[in-house]
């Protein structure tokens, strides 16, 4: 049978490129889990992803109800689940004020971490039941939150503190919209959410790998400087960032290339590896903003 893979946020950027790369093999059926059904349909069509190889299902990670509904729809579809790729993310580096998910959590952590956390928890049994030889749960991380790297030391640094903001509901009405209880900072919220993504995979590995045989991984795709992730950056940044990555750091990765790499599962798992910072200069500098 064909493998069955769910990819969140497959309507653009890395998610779309991965869906395309995986669907093109003819060996996989891709479930494109997207918040905007029509956009996903148009994107799939223009990428040449056919209906035989892909199904679009609605998923808005900024609503935990929507996550539950997606899981319900997926289970009712009767498809097995062999690989889950948690790829979707929001990044609000210039936001002055926090915005919130349907349940009232700060949007970046709420979407990137809490939405994916619930999705992963609810689909763990389905992954476990897969008879596919290398069943996987992959979360797309970011180099910016790894203080092992130069990029991870560019302020504002990721820092979860003592989790007091999270414990207080991640909402300014209660304590704070930031996990560590500090003042809102959109870039930091994104980095914090990615730390949570990576910690989630480590903890899932610790708790479930031996019992289930599922591989849990967090991957950094390289700097895909042209994706919609940077839509909220100032125009000058968006203009200069791609050439900076292409010609100065030479760490630029095209959407197609990153999609192929993720599709092939060939990425280096940076976060579980101690590596020499000097030899990773280009990787690190590349990731300063993403
Ligand atoms: P894009 O903005 O192109 O893709 C993000 C995707 O997430 C979009 O399809 C978007 O949907 C979707 N999304 C956003 N919010 C929600 C939501 N509430 N529910 C469901 N889907 C949602 O960015 P990238 O392709 O660059 O990002 C993909 C991943 O790669 C992210 O996890 C990002 O952190 C990571 N990454 C990217 C880097 C880069 O250089 N670009 C570097 C390091 C990591 P819609 O199409 O409707 O907007």
- List bound small molecules: NADPH dihydro-nicotinamide-adenine-dinucleotide phosphate
Strand neighbour order, sheet with most strands: 3-2-1-4-5-6
Compressed to H and E, one letter per element, the order equals EHEHEHEHEHHEHHH
Largest sheet: 6 strands, parallel
Radius of gyration: 18 Å
Poorly predicted parts:
266-290
Mean pLDDT: 88
Oligomer category:
single chain
User: Helix amount, in percent?
Assistant: 40-55%
Shape: globular
- Secondary structure tally: strands: 6
Q: Which structural class should the secondary elements be placed in? A: alpha/beta
The count of helical stretches stands at 9
Instruction: Name the beta content range.
Output: 5-15%
The N- and C-terminal alpha carbons lie at a distance of: 37 Å
Protein architecture, described:
The model is unreliable at 266-290 (pLDDT under 50). The chain has a six-stranded parallel beta sheet, sandwiched between helices. The chain is of the alpha/beta class and 290 residues long. The chain has nine helices and six strands. Helix 1 (13-24) links the parallel strand 1 (3-8) and strand 2 (28-34). NADPH dihydro-nicotinamide-adenine-dinucleotide phosphate binds at residues 8-9, 11-15, 34-36, 39, 59-62, 87-90, 111, 140, 142, 220-221, 223-225, 227-229, 290. The site of NADPH dihydro-nicotinamide-adenine-dinucleotide phosphate (NDP) has 31 residues, from helix 1. It catalyses: chlorophyllide a + NADP(+) = protochlorophyllide a + NADPH + H(+). It comes from Acer negundo. Phototransformation of protochlorophyllide (Pchlide) to chlorophyllide (Chlide).
């Amino acid at each position: 049978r064909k493998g069955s893979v769910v990819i969140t946020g497959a309507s653009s950027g890395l998610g779309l490129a991965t869906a395309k790369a995986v669907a093109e093999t003819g060996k996989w059926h891709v479930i494109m889990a997207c918040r905007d059904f029509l956009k996903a349909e148009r994107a799939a069509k223009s990428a040449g992803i056919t209906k035989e190889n892909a199904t679009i299902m609605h998923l808005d990670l900024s609503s935990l109800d929507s996550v539950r509904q997606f899981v319900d729809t997926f289970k009712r579809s009767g498809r097995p689940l062999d690989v889950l790729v948690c790829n979707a993310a929001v990044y609000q580096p210039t936001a002055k004020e926090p915005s919130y998910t349907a349940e009232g959590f700060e949007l970046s952590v709420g979407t990137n971490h809490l939405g994916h956390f619930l999705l992963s928890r609810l689909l763990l049994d389905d992954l476990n039941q897969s008879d596919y030889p290398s069943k996987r749960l992959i979360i797309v991380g970011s180099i910016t939150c790894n203080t092992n790297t130069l990029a991870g030391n560019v302020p504002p640094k990721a820092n979860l503190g003592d989790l007091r903001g999270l414990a207080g509901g991640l909402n300014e009405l209660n304590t704070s919209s930031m996990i560590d209880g500090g003042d809102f900072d959109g870039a930091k919220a994104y980095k914090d959410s990615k730390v949570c993504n990576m910690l989630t995979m480590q903890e899932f590995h610790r708790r479930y790998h031996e019992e289930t045989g599922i591989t849990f991984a967090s991957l950094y795709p390289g700097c895909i400087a042209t994706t919609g992730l940077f839509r909220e950056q100032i125009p000058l940044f968006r203009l200069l960032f791609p050439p900076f990555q292409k010609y100065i750091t030479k760490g630029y990765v095209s959407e197609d290339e990153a999609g192929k790499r993720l599709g092939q599962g060939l990425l280096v798992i940076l976060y579980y590896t101690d590596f020499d910072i000097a030899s990773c200069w280009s990787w690190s500098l590349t990731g300063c903003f993403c």
